[in-house]
Amino acid sequence: MRRRIETKLHDWKSKKEKKPLVLFGARQTGKTTSLLKFANEFYKTVVYVDFCKQPNMKAAFSGSLEPSKVLSNIEALLRTRIDPKDSILILDGIQDCEEALTSIKFFCTDMPQLDVAAAGSLLGVHVAREGSYPVGYVDIETMHPMDFEEFCWALGEDQAFDLVRSCMADVSECVLHEDLVGLYREYLLVGGMPEAVTLYAQRSSLDAVRKAQRDIRTAYVADMAKYATSTDSAKIIASWESLPTQLAKESGSTKFVWKAVSSGAKADRYATAVDWLVASGIVNRCTQITDGVAPLKSFENVKSFKLYMGDTGLLSCAYDATLQDFEGKDHRSARFRGGIAENYVMQQLNAHDVQPYYWGMQSTQEVEFVLKLKEGVVPIEVKSSQRVRSTSAKAFAEKYGCPYILRVTGKNFGKAEGVINIPLYAAGLIPELL
C-alpha cells in the first residue's frame, strides 16, 4: 500500500550528507514493510537483519564495533557480500541489541558511504529506559498508523481526497460530503493499522478486521509484560485498558484521571506507566496549557493531560463498536461518539508529527485542541455531529485575540463570523496550515 513515509525515505536517500536513519514507531504500523519496499526499489543489495527473528545476528556486534569488522561478521553470518556503495543495511528490532544501536554512531563517522536504517517497535521505551542513543549521529523519522488520507488511498479513493484538499484551500463545500462522511465512519471502525486496512480493502468482513485488531492489542499487552518489570507492567496494562473509559466519561471531559485507572491510583505511582505507553508510541499525550499565548510550551501544565490511543480502530475495537453506534443520536452514547472523534483528530495531527495542546478545566470551559498556526494561536473545537456550538472556543478566541476558530464537525466546509468549519474527514489537512 502507498504510505506517506515513502516520500520521507526518498528524501533521506537523496541527502548529500545523510546520517543513518532511525525509524521510530509502534508495533505493526508498517515500518518493516515500508523500509523493505523502499530498499528493494532503490538499492542493488539489501542486507536485512532482524534481531527478534535472528538472535544469532547479535554476534556480529559482540566484539569490535568498527564498521568494517561488523560488516565482515554480517557477511560471514549471512553468507553474502556487501558493497557499501550500492547497498543498504537494515537493522530491525534494534532495541533487542544494545551494541547494534551503539554501532550506528560509528557507521555515521567511519563508513558514511553505506546507507544504514534501523527500526524498532519499542525503541522509544528502550531509549527512555537505558538512556543509550547515538544523539547527533542519526536522522530520525516516526512511522504512524495510516491516517484518513492513506486509508482513502488504500480504498482507491485518491480523487475523492484530492477534492477534499481543494475544498480546504478555499473553504468551499465538498460535493462528495456524504460519501466522505461514510468513509470517515468506516475509518473509525477500521483505523490505520496496515493489516486491518488491507483486510478491509480486500472486502473482508468486519469480523476479520476485528480479529486482526484484537491480535494487535494482545501483542501490545504482551510487550508490556515482556519489556517492563512485573510491578510496572501491571500499572501499564491498567492505564492502557482504562483509555476507553477515560474517553467516554459521564463528565464529558476526556482529561486523564487516575481514579479511572484503579482505585486509589495516583500520579506518583502510575506516572511512569503513562510515560511507558507514550514512549512505546501506542498512545498520544495532549498536555494542558494555562494560557493561549505563544510559545504555547511555555504555558504547559504537565500534570494535566489527555491520553488518546494511537489508532482509532483499536479504540473502536475496545468498545466493540459497530457502524450503527456512530450513526446513533441517543444522547447517552454522545460521550462515546465525542471521545472517539477527539481520538481520531489527535491521530490525524500526530500522523503529521504535530503536537497540539488543550485548554480549559473539567466541568467549565474546555477547548479540545490548541495549535500555533501561521496566523497565530488557534483553538480547535471537535464535535462528532452537525449540531455544534463554539462557546468555549469563542471564549478562548476572545480572551487571547485569536485570528479565527477551527471547528471540526460533521458539517460541510463553511466559514462565518470568524469560525471556519472543517469536516471531520478533512482534519488531517489542518497540519498544512502550519
Describe the structure.
43% of the residues lie in helices and 18% in strands. A hairpin with a 2-residue loop joins β12 and β13. The two termini are 27 Å apart. α10 packs antiparallel against α11. The protein is built from 17 helices and 13 strands. By secondary structure, the chain is an alpha/beta fold. The mean pLDDT is 93. The radius of gyration is 23 Å and the shape is globular.
List the helices and strands and how they pair.
Layout: H1 5-14, E1 21-25, H2 31-42, E2 45-50, H3 67-78, E3 87-92, H4 98-110, E4 115-119, H5 123-130, E5 139-143, H6 148-154, H7 158-170, H8 177-190, H9 194-201, H10 206-226, H11 230-241, H12 243-246, H13 267-280, E6 283-289, E7 300-309, H14 312-319, H15 323-327, H16 334-350, E8 357-360, E9 366-373, E10 376-382, H17 391-400, E11 405-409, E12 414-416, E13 419-423
Parallel strand pairs: 1-4, 1-5, 2-3, 3-4, 6-8, 10-11, 11-13
Antiparallel strand pairs: 6-7, 8-9, 9-10, 12-13
Helix pairs in contact: 5-13, 8-14, 9-10, 10-11, 10-14, 11-13
